């Protein structure tokens, strides 16, 4: 086809000790090794210059003219491409030149990559696998060509098999890894490999929320609603969707809330807090923990800002709030865990608590002496809600501080040093990897991950392969590429999670380009309509707990955290909200648009149903909302729904179809 | 047939949810059989965050006052309103001055306090605590765990349930959603394997817009919604579908009942708790229409986690709480339902006697309020504890060991609600560790 052959020509001569430094060199006498290293520039990336390469062959060895001396084989490796797609035939061919009629033998050796059956001929051929894992496969082979004189030439060859996504696979990934895909996004991602897309997302510039805050036109200072408006703008429009999704997940672990708290008056501080989550979403967990701990917003929310050392005279002791919650919720949890996230048990089969009152008091002392940055004095705090807190030694406890696992911070350690030691102590606890990995999996992929899945991710959290602990990019990658997440191998009957009500709405607003004429998203009552809003949990325990089991699942071992907020009032609220959005707020159904009202735009699907009929719309929605897995029953229900509206205007047809999708269990389940 | 299959079967056949849970519940009956002709309601007011309830009832003079002031320092309450409970206490006892609006209810003997109450497995002394010689509730001082002990009414077990839900089931009253109503979302108190509270919006009525009205469009949309909601076989999706179907059925039934309720709006002010109690009152006003015999209601108020700024925030909270309680008391009188409705408070825990500068931290024992015509009011039950730092009940830092188990408190309410004495320990298993199972704060 459009093959650009990759020729790697090697002229051999009887040079001894031409140290190439690769591990293969001691295996054969006087081998000559050429590393074809496709990625390194000599391969097919040469934009059609392949034919030029062989000129190097002819003029490379001027000493071969009339000599009778026996030479090692001159070989060239021919490869169609250095990347292959799943299912394609990979063919590696060795061309031997200048050997005349001499017999040569071929020995193939695989240096890395999934194991391939080797041959003893001049070619290696196999079908690129398409179902074992979602990881791109990186192959590395060494071929040794030996002639009858016993002279050998060796050459390495590298290439990759990319796990390119089809449309349905792209849709499925984007439902897990974005805030809700649009049709065009799915089509744009299809054809890429999972790793390619994830790597692209990791490297996109960060869409921070703070710069998106716009005050009311007549005000100097922003209002709470202006930071929620910024959240919508980023969620709807940001390119770095994976980061936005992971940051949202982190906001449900490192919970702060401006719902009915004094923080409702600090929208810039709240946005700055969200920006910390965005900034560190693919950074290191230890840095994230420190930034969260030192955030004045967290300091106010869990009251370690302004927390003083003990004063026995006045019966004052350090505030224990942050000490407790940083352990229970942000790092290690209440019970000792196995690497796979299950509880450890003592010899009596009892769970083992991770900490007691002594440790709480130890950490409470650590979190003393911190207040707003640039405060002139302890008693005159600056009320700067966006910069990390600063320490005042006079107010920091100089006492000994007992940490986890018996570690003790000696007396007279400074506030900053104490903090570093204490956060390291938390960070290095064995619970952190399974505790955080499992919750991230639950927020992103599935409510009931198998212990094996948790363990595989936790191992990456503990060591990203380069000896680094807490690498969140590596952890996130492991979460998305795991076979369980990708539905490879035997699927679990209960795999998946209930979509959060807020995220369901984000997808519909993204798909139908929801906007107001003045580009403002003033969603005033999110918690009372959806049961949740960004950074609006009713408490530090989030909207729902990771171990929540609804009554409907009581005869199983399964949990469904998101159903904790699925009470009757919220569910009716969600029905009404979807109905209002998808049926009443369709712009094309209004003669005149109100400047401040939000509208959804459905012209495209309206045209589609008029030109290509209902089945074209249903095919599109199958991919868009069900990742290609719409059941026959669902499809029939949508057809029947449409029957009533088919005689009406086509906006009503689209509206009612999408509304029925919006409340359906099949769509509400993310798989 | 399990519940899910049964539900899906009923949905297809159009049987109402209320009827089906009634049938389903027969498997959960105790040995006794219950049948009620009269109406009673328990209204739980949950004070989220851990109310500093030791500051609701404070000593007025003498040694107790001295100890109190020494412990509490800048957070000591002054100008308390003197109470005259039946039992006299050394140093007297005063009500927090922000709670004036319930003082006359106490004086009229329709309100009582239970004092020194908290989560306990067995009677526990300071030495027991220090030597760890008795079992202690797990995760003391932790918000959600201690909230859970109040709502579950027992220690954590693998398949847990709330004591409100267990009580309804044991009394064979779980079958109708109108018996289990929350104004504050899902909560463990009202939840069990078979029961989830019906959540009522605090405005009372929730229209379901897509199926509002009587035309062909509404009925077409409704039939398709029901069909789609019953479709999934995946356990999580199916659980969601069941919740959706129940929400629709229950909301429609409740809407039609509440539309016929008495106008009580003059009795209630605008605070969130008042609005919640307003809707509880409206719902109680249609108890006959709903054919409700035993109802439990859950309302809540947040903000009690006063780690800081307590001197400002706590009086405001107690003031709002008292105002709402007083309004509810008047509304119940107007409905002539006072004797049948008992309101009571729960909270995560009491707070530390010591201050952290301008607030308090998570403690243990505290005081709770019981209000209603059936209350033996004007009295403080349990043990009005010495607020004595490092005193006989102080574990450390002013976290007091409860002298009454919250299960004893709950059992007293359950007994009034109609549960037979012999079945109290089935619902509250730790009662067997205590000499008396109930306290006499309810008239039988």
UniProtKB/TrEMBL annotation, chain B:
Highest classification ranks of the organism: Bacteria, Pseudomonadati, Pseudomonadota, Gammaproteobacteria, Alteromonadales
GO MF entries: kinase activity
Pfam families registered for this protein in UniProt: DUF1501
Organism: Pseudoalteromonas phenolica
Gene Ontology biological process: phospholipid biosynthetic process
Highest taxon of source: Bacteria
UniProt cross-references to InterPro entries, sorted A to Z: DAGK, DUF1501
Protein name per the record: DUF1501 domain-containing protein
Gene Ontology terms: cellular component: membrane
